[in-house]
UniProtKB/TrEMBL annotation:
Protein's name in the database: MAG2-interacting protein 2
Record organism: Stylosanthes scabra
Length: 1233
């Protein structure tokens, strides 16, 4: 009931804690009671624990109070700080070490009031000192007790008198000795401290008697710490914060801390001892800097000099020596700068100095060195710098050349220095050492030629096997400009030393050397260096070596993977190695290296342009050699393995042949047309080496399959040959025609597959063909193929199975072989084929057999029937261009009527220019057949009946042979020209051509027919109908067309139409009509035009044409154009000058127009006006005509191409000119002549 009346629950807990029964001891139960009372927050629980701790302290239970204080300190319960401070400064307890005390004091300092801070800080320092001592005791295993009285003054909280302390120190000695011990303590203290830091208290006795703690520490700890600081056994380093200190140093630090705690000034020897401890080896640069900081606290700065010089003497490591020297120079600079005793300023300056990392003194610093204090520091700094320089030299020498005699280097022994440097350079040949910078530094330091040393080093690493190109490039990267700048020396070194020492198969290293040479030559060229090394005495002076070596470098890299290629046999220092080049390339040709070697050959050849020696390999020869080598292997296998006479072996060999071609097909397409076709032919001829084993093979399906596989391969091969032959060639003349061979092979394969030819016949045929074929035009190829088939036992029945396109050629050849000429192929066949006397007997030996009877229908004249079949086949090929469904048979060509009917039917299908051209070609094929027949009938029928098997003796007088003019003596006088038997067909063709305004083609066809004057293409009715059609379209064209025909009435009719047209003016398209002038002269109508005034406008038009053409001739001559050249397709000005104008002058003279003729000649000859008073016109006329006659007799005027359309007509005019001019000259006055 009483507890329930208390509202403050914490008060109830406190009552329970303070009960006299010792309830505070039950901490957990009290906390549980508090929770039951509702005190559950962290702060409330901490408050309960605080009350328990305080009650325990009051009751004397300090251990429990300590444990609870530790817990509350960790929780940050600040209200307990005073108890924590009291326990920390109280007596020793179980589990309470110095760190625990420091933890409690630290917590108390965080929450105490201002008045208690000073007192707690002093207590903290005392604890820290005690902690340092305990650490040293544990680490060293020593105890201060043997140096001082027992116990620790830290545990003596009550104040002691001087007598008690001295008594403890003397361990029971009498009072008279107390002064002795006090003096001893004073001596020890004075050894480490100069005086008190505050006031003028110099009396040590008074200081000790007034400060019991100082006396206690000096009596119990100081001697022990001094002994540790001097004992060399305690050099093991301890981790203290971020610094690693040995125990001797820690002892000194502890003494210094105690002195500072009690405001004593330490003596220099103690500070120097600390600096030495920090700087003891092994030492880091950071530790040296710390040591320098310590030395700056010395009262006498020269004591620091002694420490630094001592360190210089004992140190051996280069880095440590450099470090202490830097410390010494910084130390001297700081003391010489006049900063004085301002330790803060010294500290900042020292930090700044070391941040500059050994920077050279500024101008201001140097001035200060000369003005402030004594010269000692300057001299000492100079001494340090000199010592540092020597140390650097020594270090550098030992690093670069271990074991070198440094003194000889430093003394300047040039011979020794040079030998050692050369030996060092030689060593990099066997061991990769990146020492170029060091070697060049030695050269600069000791007076060697840096350029020579650099080039020697470069030579050594270039000829070494342990250095890669990348290693070399990285090594000389910083000196490459210097190497190139000394181009002449570098070239000499590389040429005389490096290049001969490098293996030619080490192409990557050679490429690197070539690259350096290129850069050097480029520098010499750009700087216009005139040194002899820049210009080699070489046969091809056009080579720029910078470009040459750059190209060679690239190609050397590209072929570096070709193992056995010795690149020195490809290229030398001054040009390609022509003696070994070809052999070296050929020796290394493999499939993997083909492309690279070919590209290399092409690229290096381009350097020389057209100045390569004869026989130098081309890039295509690389592929050619490889392919021929593979074929040679196949041929060798075919010869050496000839005993394997089985179809399986033949199949295997064909497979190898196909695989060889498949792998080489791409390479073949890279060759020239002739080389490509030549190699592809070898895939045919390779079977010659097999024939000895397969001369007689069984006629069964297995061997038939082998033959079909071979023929299929050849067909695909020929198809590729056709593509190559159709490509634009570079001026090459390709005589071989694979198109014809392709058709033959397809037809031949069909014969084999359909069992028309047996395997033995097929094998014999292809063997016979490859022996004599593959060498000429289609005519010769077909001849060779057919001859091979016949010799192998094939009869005409097999030939008849060929496609019509091939059968045409075969029939033509068969006709010629039998001794008959053939239209269209006469020149080719006569040049390549010889008639075969035994042909008739062989061809018709089996004529009674069924096969031949089926192929040759019954006819009285088998020769004519054979000819008709041939012409029909060729005509069918042509008519396919018009309509593939139309086919011309031999029956269509039995007579003229059937032929005309067939042709008119074809004309009905023709609708465009290509169709019209096909019609002309068809009629030309028929022309020889029917004109010969007609001519033969007119001459005699007796010769035809006696001809027997003489197949059309005169059939060669076809269209192409119309240029051969018949012998006039053989013609009967008074015979009128006969009309062409196919004139109706020709009329239809001309109508088609006129309908599309192809008048030039009409004129050309008429001109061609004029070469055979006994045959006229059209009768007068046909010509009249055509002229009427032409007059409705172009009267000038109609006139030209009729002038080519011998029908005078049509001439006059068309001339009237032209006269009427000219009354309206000369059309712009007719101002240069040379064709009309040619036809007017050839037809002889000029006399009618000249004498008949009805045609005055035509005569004026003719004069206009001559004037216009004459003007064009004169302009051409003035401009320097050669009008006598016959290179152009047509040259109308040449025709005008050499033919038309002389004929016109002659005709004018014959028409008694002498004055006009002479006037035209003088104008044409551009006679000088000053001669106008002299009558020279007639003389000029005579001279002109005599000159033209002379040119005709000398045949000096090339007029073959002056007018392609009227070629025959122009030729006829030229033939008449001589007699015309002679007759004209006879009409002129003999006096003038």
């Amino acid at each position: 009931m009483q507890f329930r009346q208390i509202k403050d629950r914490m008060k109830i807990v406190k009552m329970a804690i303070t009960s006299p029964t010792g309830a505070y001891f039950h901490v957990d139960e009290l906390i549980e009671v508090a929770r039951l009372l509702g005190l559950r927050s962290a702060d409330e629980i901490s408050a309960v624990e605080e009350d328990i701790a305080r009650e325990a302290a009051v009751s004397g239970d300090l251990q429990l109070a300590f444990d609870l204080c530790i817990v509350l300190a960790r929780k940050g319960h600040g209200y307990i700080w005073d108890l924590c401070a009291a326990i920390a400064r109280g007596p020793a307890l179980e589990n309470m070490d110095v760190d625990s005390r420091k933890q409690l004091l630290g917590f108390a300092l965080s929450y105490c009031d201002e008045e208690s801070i000073g007192e707690l800080l002093h207590a903290w320092k005392d604890l820290d000192m005690q902690g340092q001592c305990e650490t040293l005791m544990i680490s060293t295993g020593s105890n201060p007790s043997k140096f001082s009285l027992r116990g620790s003054y830290f545990n003596s909280l009550p104040k002691q008198s001087i007598q008690n302390i001295c008594f403890q120190a003397s361990n029971g000695m009498n009072t008279n000795n107390q002064d002795v011990h006090l003096d001893k303590i004073k001596d020890e203290l004075s050894a480490v401290a100069k005086t008190l830091a505050i006031g003028d208290q110099i009396d040590w006795a008074l200081s000790l008697t007034e400060n019991v703690k100082v006396l206690s520490f000096a009596a119990s700890q100081l001697l022990w710490l001094l002994d540790l600081s001097k004992n060399g056994e305690h050099d093991t380093k301890l981790i203290t914060g971020k610094q690693y200190l040995n125990m001797r140093t820690q002892a000194v630090v502890t003494i210094l801390s105690w002195l500072a705690r009690n405001e004593f000034s330490p003596r220099d020897n103690l500070i120097a001892s600390l600096a030495k401890s920090v700087m003891e080896q092994p030492v880091t640069e950071e530790e040296d800097i710390i040591g320098c900081f310590y030395l700056l606290n010395l009262f006498d700065a020269f004591n620091g000099v002694e420490v630094i010089e001592e360190q210089l003497k004992i140190r051996k490591d280069y880095q440590q020596i450099c470090s202490i020297m830097n410390v010494g120079m910084a130390y001297s600079l700081l003391h010489n700068s006049g900063i004085g005793t301002d330790h803060i300023q010294r500290k900042e300056l020292l930090k700044m100095r070391f941040k500059e990392k050994h920077a050279s003194p500024t101008t201001n610093e140097i001035d200060t060195l000369g003005k402030v204090q004594s010269s000692f520091w300057r001299e000492w700094k100079v001494k340090l710098e000199e010592q540092e320089r020597l140390t650097d030299h020594y270090r550098a020498l030992q690093k670069i050349i271990p074991g070198v005699e440094t003194e000889r280097f430093l003394s300047g022994d040039s011979i020794y220095i040079e030998n050692e440097v050369l030996n060092l350079i030689e060593s990099v040949k066997m061991e990769k050492k990146h020492i170029l910078k060091d070697i060049l530094k030695l050269a600069d330091t000791y007076g060697l030629n840096s350029t020579e040393v650099l080039l020697q080093y470069l030579s050594a690493i270039l000829v070494s096997d342990v250095w890669t190109n990348d290693d070399i490039a990285a090594e000389i990267a910083d000196y490459e400009a210097n190497i190139v700048a000394n181009g002449a020396k570098t070239i000499s070194t590389l040429s005389s030393i490096v290049y001969p020492a490098i293996d030619g198969c080490n192409k990557l290293r050679l490429a690197y050397v070539y690259g350096l040479l290129s850069e050097c030559y480029l520098h010499l060229e750009s700087s216009k260096d005139s040194s002899p090394i820049a210009y080699h005495d070489y046969q091809n002076s056009d080579i720029k070596f910078a470009h040459y070596y750059r190209v060679i470098e690239q190609e050397c890299k590209h072929v570096s993977f070709v193992k056995n290629l010795n690149f020195k046999n490809i290229a030398g220092l001054h040009g390609l190695n022509f003696e070994c080049f070809n052999d070296e390339v050929y020796a290394c040709i493999e499939e993997s290296s083909l492309s690279a070697l070919s590209k290399m050959v092409q690229t290096v050849a381009n350097i020389y342009g057209n100045s390569l020696p004869e026989g130098f390999i081309s890039w295509q020869d690389v592929y050619k050699y490889y392919i021929l080598h593979l074929l040679s292997d196949l041929e060798s296998k075919a010869t050496n393995e000839s005993s394997s006479r089985t179809p399986e072996y033949l199949q295997s060999f064909i497979s190898k042949l196909k695989h060889s071609y498949g792998s080489c097909r791409t390479y073949i397409r890279l060759l020239s047309q002739s080389d490509a076709l030549g190699i592809m032919k070898k895939y045919f001829t390779v079977i010659i080496h097999l024939y000895s084993s397969y001369r007689f093979i069984p006629d069964n399906s297995t061997w038939q399959d082998c033959l079909i596989v071979l023929l299929d391969f050849w067909t695909r091969l020929t198809d590729d040959m056709k593509e190559i032959a159709l490509e634009e060639s570079s001026g090459e003349t390709i005589s071989f025609n694979p198109v014809c061979l392709l058709s033959c092979l397809k037809a031949f394969t069909k014969l084999v597959m359909e069992d028309i030819l047996s395997p033995s016949q097929g094998w014999g045929s292809i063997y016979g063909y490859v022996q004599c074929g593959l060498i000429g035009e289609s005519t010769l190829e077909i001849y060779s193929f057919c001859k091979a088939m016949i010799f192998s036992g094939c009869r005409y029945g097999a030939v008849a199975e060929l496609p019509s396109s091939i059968r045409v050629y075969v029939l033509e050849l068969m006709q010629y072989i039998s001794g008959k000429s053939i239209k269209g192929f006469l020149a080719e066949i006569e040049a390549n084929v010889q008639p075969w006397e035994e042909w008739n007997e062989l061809l018709y030996a089996g004529s009674k057999s069924e096969d031949v009877d089926k192929q040759l229908p019954d006819h009285k004249d088998s020769s004519n029937r054979f000819t008709n079949t041939l012409v029909a086949l060729k005509s069918s090929q042509l008519v396919a261009l018009i309509s593939p469904s139309i086919e011309i048979t031999a029956d269509d060509l039995l007579n003229i009527d059937s032929a005309v009917s067939c042709f008119l039917k074809i004309c009905g299908e023709a609708s465009n220019n290509s169709h019209f051209d096909a019609l002309v070609a068809i009629l030309e094929e028929w022309d020889g057949l029917f004109t010969t027949m007609k001519y033969r009938e007119r001459e005699t029928t007796a010769e035809v009946s006696e001809g027997g098997n003489d197949w059309n003796d005169d059939w060669d007088e076809g269209w192409e042979s119309l240029e051969e003019v018949e012998n006039p003596e053989k013609e009967k006088k008074g015979d009128s020209p006969a009309v062409h038997p196919l004139h109706v067909c020709w009329t239809e063709i001309f109508k088609k051509l006129i309908s599309v305004s192809r008048f030039s083609d009409v004129l050309r066809l008429f001109d061609q027919s004029s070469s055979k004057p006994n045959v006229m293409l059209l009768d007068e009715d046909d010509a009249r109908s055509l002229s009427q059609i032409a007059l409705g379209m172009d009267c000038f064209a109609a006139l030209k067309m009729t002038l080519l025909l011998p029908y005078k009435g049509l001439h006059l009719q068309c001339m009237v139409a032209v006269e009427d047209n000219l009354s309206q003016g000369i059309p712009a398209t007719k101002i240069r009509d040379v064709e009309l002038l040619i036809l007017i002269f050839s037809s002889g109508v000029l006399t009618s035009i000249t004498n008949d005034s009805t045609y005055g406008k035509i005569f004026s038009y003719i004069c206009y044409l001559f004037g216009n053409l004459s003007n064009q001739c004169q302009q051409a001559l003035v401009s320097g154009k050669r009008i006598n050249s016959s290179e152009d397709a047509e040259n109308p000005l040449l025709l005008f000058r050499t033919t038309l104008f002389p004929m016109f002058i002659s005709e004018l003279v014959k028409a008694d127009q002498h004055v006009l003729a002479a006037f035209l000649v003088t104008k044409f000859m551009h006679t000088n006006e000053s001669l106008s008073l002299i009558n020279i016109a007639e003389a000029s006329l005579v001279w002109y005509l005599e000159r033209q006659l002379h040119l005709l007799q000398m045949n000096e005027v090339p007029v073959e191409k002056t007018c392609i359309t009227l070629k025959n007509t122009v030729g006829s005019l030229r033939g008449k000119m001589s007699s015309l001019i002679q007759s004209t000259l006879s009409l002129l006055s003999p006096r003038v002549r």
